[in-house]
Sequence to fold (745 residues):
Amino acid sequence: MTGTSESTAVGLLDRYALERELGSGGMAVVHLAEEKKHARKVAIKILRPEFTASVGAERFLREIGIAARLSHPHIVPLIDSGETEGQLYYVSPYVPGGSLRDRLRAEKKLSLRETQRITQQIATALDYAHRNGFVHRDVKPENILFADGHALLADFGIAHARRVAGGEAITESGLAVGTPAYMSPEQATAEEDLDGSSDIYSLACVVYEMLTGEPPFHGDSARAVMVRHVMETPRPVRALQPDVPPGVERAIARALAKRPEDRFASVLDFSAAIEGVGPDGGVGFSAAVRTVAVLPFVNASSDPENEYLSDGLTDELINALAKVEGLRVASRTSVFALKGKAQDVRAIGALLGASVVLEGTVRKSLERLRVTAQLTSADDGRLLWSERFDRTVSDMFDIQDELADIIVTTLRGTWLADLDQPLPKRYTESISAYGLYLKGRYAWNKRTQEGVAEGIEYFEKAIAEDPGYALAYTGLADSYALHVDYRNVHVSSGFERAKEYAKKALELDDSLAEAHASLAWTLFIYDWDWEGATREFRRAIELDSRYATAHQWYAFLLASRQRLDEALVEAHTSQELDPASVSIRRSLGYTYLYARRYEQACYHETRAIAMNPAGEESYRVLGLALTLSGQHEEAERVLREATTLAAAGTYTKVTLAYALARNGKREYGEALALELAEKRELDYVSPVELATLHIALGNTESALDWMQRAYDERRGWMAYLKVHPILDPLRDEPRFQALVAKMRL
Fold:
């Protein structure tokens, strides 16, 4: 019989007749049996030997003997325990109504009313246990059973007997016991002295699953799931189930707080909030939630070329509202990720953490312009305001100002009485320059070689119309910096011009956070001016702490300086500010790779791929992280898939060659070396690609030759000499150490 030795089964035969296996997990195997003395069905849980060895037989039997004293209508009692043939076991009455897991398999998710009923019954059981000094430590759907429709909490066999007044903590601390999908962060990290807050977190995971049909976190391994509990924030409940009241969503979010002190004071408080009668219950607006999401306005014109107007209006409203003290605005990247996707406004609000959603249309016909807009409550889908504007194109500025004023006035009249009126800052008075700038940003945001080139053309035309247009110069700076990324070319001309235009923007307006961040990036990645770049990044964040890109790029600088903990804080900050950005998610994975925390790197790159399955760079970083963690076959699969993508280039092939060579397969890399030697006769090949390839093949001198070339060309890759893991084989080489010294690293 699975997981149970024959000798163990024989040792139980004098009292129990084992019938069949009911289930098994990481810690034990459960059997249905008949207790011979009373002719009743029981469930016998037999612990696995490795768990027994971790806990200790004497300690476990002492603890379970105390747990057996628990007597409550919603707790499945323990009726026997012992040790036979070196294996520990304990016995409970068999509950024939099935488990919550069985119900979720059949129904996927439960109604709010049923979820509230089950939560209330299990909460009373946990409250009783907590008051008697016990933490369950394994609250999950499998351990919630049903008897005559009532929910019962089973399996106090691994309960943690807490330290009571003057008493001894019985369960050995420091052991991560439980089920990964439902573990609290402190349990996942095996912290000592768990208390009832850990069970509140686990119960919240179960409630989340009852309402949405899935637990808060998934992962490819138990360790990956546990890491997510410690590091990640789950998707809002209403992003998956819009009908859930906002108060219930907020209660779950509070119960899932990473820090125990940020959760509810008791499990009954959590249950009351789920019922809607506690401090976090009900459907009322939470003063802490002051976020508006401006969805991309829809181009309702017959000409698709007019889309720059609808996108531009969206951008301007985001910028205007972001300057209102006391109001948070969902980032551009987050809202534009939803462009063209019809979703329930309540789900959008939950996904973006927004309390209200603004949406609308723009129709242009010759010089006439019609703009419609509506503001909707994300809590209950209630329409707060709607209006239509019939104007001319030259009135675009007035429409933007009027819309921003109306939105704030509407919010002040409903929930947010203390909001300031927006004071929009106009960067140009030329409607023609403004239109060209909008077209430039629209083209730039395509993030393609052609789109960036087109953006440069529009920004230059905008500056010709208004030479004092600071935002247009930031557009040029970003375009020339990005142009380097999308073309396999020498970097000097692109970055010199990017720096020139960023400085020009700052001459015109030193308060532009975007311009400071653009300048900081060129100082870091091209000039290798660590102090100057740090100063400019900090200035950008000081001017606009919500500018996610500044945090994203600053994380790379900190990582390159081996300040990896600080880098991870900045990278996570950028991801929290802009959760829908593929680039930021990928950068977070990069930062974990530099920190040599490959499991987390793989997790974030997998998320980035899920967000954009055509994003070649995410596959490349994932493949590299898998290689460095020794998962060679999976790395090869991922990187071969990457080579089939439209954006795949030489760097993709080189990364695949590196992965194969690390697994003893040199043929692909050797053939690629010959291919690139021929290509160099006709075209430019980046020295970074060639250095990586020769590192893979173990050609140390050739690798160092190409690294010297990368230094001469001021390739940004050189900034990471001290932290990039693939460079480890070269670290003791005098030429490598000389490069590190020249880089002032």
